[in-house]
From TrEMBL:
Domain Tc1-like transposase DDE: 98-217
Entry-linked InterPro entries: RNaseH_sf (IPR036397), Tc1-like_DDE_dom (IPR038717)
Pfam families per the UniProt record, alphabetical: DDE_3 (PF13358)
Descriptive protein name: Tc1-like transposase DDE domain-containing protein
Molecular function via GO: nucleic acid binding
């Protein structure tokens, strides 16, 4: 049992000292105890363990879609925003995907057969800016794709307020943009677009010698986006069923896809930087 799992249980209990002693005794008795086994043991002896709602939401969400067919996954348009920065000076300059502030924010989307639109976000990404992004770069592409494929496409969005606020919801309803309606928190492993962002980072990094300013970076991002590998996008969507089964197997907890996104892909990109 990982120490982090034990700590996550203790964090939801008031009398941690006695609970910790009881947990250690339970683990010594059965070293293979699961996360749920330990929670139930504490409840059995009288501790009030609050629900791990994020974990339960992820598990329920995944179970509801465990039997989705390939055609259902093929009808999802995956979206998110990301930020890119220029780090260092030439010749050691690097273009990096950055989760913090600064740099350039972009919003993009893709589906099983390729890539949709990408937008440079010049302002703080709130509901107004998101609606402008949809209106100017996404809506016409989305409607044309529906007309071309004759499929009821769903736009995937996470739970950020810029996506789920009342103004944004009403605008999407008025323009017939359908989505899931809800997305479980802290679930980057359920959205394959992180792999897309890191691939875009690798493509832009190859032209680092010509990127001297933020304007150069904007141009590079826009030019490399349509050059992304459509077959790669297809492979990501084809494997969606495995992602959700992995969450079910982990009972709503982190999966190997979480580890891959957080550690392996950034490391791979950093290696490519110096090739």
């Amino acid at each position: 049992m990982p120490t982090s799992s034990v700590q996550s249980i203790l964090d939801r209990i008031n009398k941690k000292g006695r609970a910790e002693r009881h947990l250690k005794a339970a683990i010594r008795s059965d070293p293979l105890s699961s996360y749920e086994d330990l929670q139930m043991e504490l409840v059995r002896v009288g501790f009030n363990v609050c629900r791990d709602t994020k974990r339960e939401d992820r598990l329920l969400w995944s179970k509801e879609r465990a039997n989705w067919t390939d055609n259902q996954w093929n009808n999802v348009v995956w979206s998110d925003e990301s930020r890119f920065i220029i780090h260092g000076n030439f010749p050691g300059r690097r273009v990096l995907r950055n989760g913090g502030g600064g740099g350039i924010m972009v919003w993009g989307c893709f589906w099983v057969s390729g890539f949709g639109t990408i937008a440079i976000v010049e302002e703080k990404f709130n509901q107004d800016v998101y609606i402008d992004t949809l209106a100017q770069t996404f809506h016409s592409w989305y409607q044309n794709l529906i007309a071309k494929t004759d499929k009821p496409l769903l736009l995937q969005e996470d739970g950020a307020i810029c996506y789920t606020g009342l103004y944004a919801r009403l605008w999407k309803e008025a323009h017939q943009i359908k989505g899931f309606g809800y997305w479980p928190a802290q679930s980057p492993d359920l959205n394959p677009i992180d792999h897309i962002w890191y691939s875009l980072e690798a493509l832009v990094q190859k032209r680092k010698a010509s990127i001297h300013s933020m304007e150069d970076l904007k141009v590079a991002l826009k030019e490399e986006w349509p050059r992304m590998d459509a077959e790669f996008a297809k492979r990501l969507v084809v494997n969606m069923g495995r992602r959700y089964q992995a969450v079910i197997g982990a009972k709503g907890g982190p999966t190997r896809h979480s580890f891959f996104i957080l550690f392996f892909i950034p490391a791979l990109i950093n290696v490519r930087t110096f090739l």
